[in-house]
Amino acid sequence: MNQKEKIIEVTTKLIIESKGDLSLVTARKIAEKADASLGLINYHFENKDKLITECVQRIIYKEIRAFVPKDTVYSDDEYEADRQRLTFWAKQVFEFFYGNKSISKVSILGDLQNNMPKSNLVDMQRGLLLALTADVDNQKKNMLVFSLTSIMEAAFLQESAVSERLGYELSKPNERERFIEDTIDGIIGFYMKKTDG
What we know:
By secondary structure, the protein is mainly α. The protein contains ten helices and no strands. α1 (3-17) crosses α2, α4 (48-66) crosses α6 (101-114) and α8 (138-157) packs antiparallel against α10 (173-192).
C-alpha cells in the first residue's frame, strides 16, 4: 500500500472510531498513526479538510452500496406502490443522515462543492430510482428523485430554517417521517400524471 492510501486508511479508521465526531480526528493523530509527516499529508491532500472529505465520501459510498431496502407489501396500483416504496426508502436515507450527522454533512457539502457526475448524491439518486417501477417516462422519474434528494439535503443542512419556516422539528424521528411523507405527497403528482397517447 502506498503512503497516500495508508493515510486514507488511517484517517477512515479514525473517523469511524470517533463515531463521526470529526473534531477528534486531528492532523497530528493522522500523521502519527500513518507514520507520516504533516507535510506529506498536505502534499497529498492540500489540507486535513480535503483528506477528511475524501475519506467521508468513501465511507458514505460503502454505506450506499450496502443499503438493501426491506421487502414490504405494497399496493396493487403501480403508482401507489411507487409512492409507498419511495417514501419508505427515502425515510431510511433521511434517518441515515440524522444518525450520522457529521459525516453526512461533509459528504453532502463535498458533493455540492465538487459537482462531479459520479458522487454519493448521484449514487443515492440512482438507488431511489429503483423504487419507481411504474411505466412512466424516465425524465419524470429522474425529475422526481432529483427534486426529492435536493429537498432532503437542503432540509438536513437547514434544519433550523425548516423548523422556523415550515414547522417541522427534524430533530425528532416522527417529524422527519412526516416531512418525507409530506414532501413526496407534494411532488409526486407530476410523476403520477399519465401522459396521453
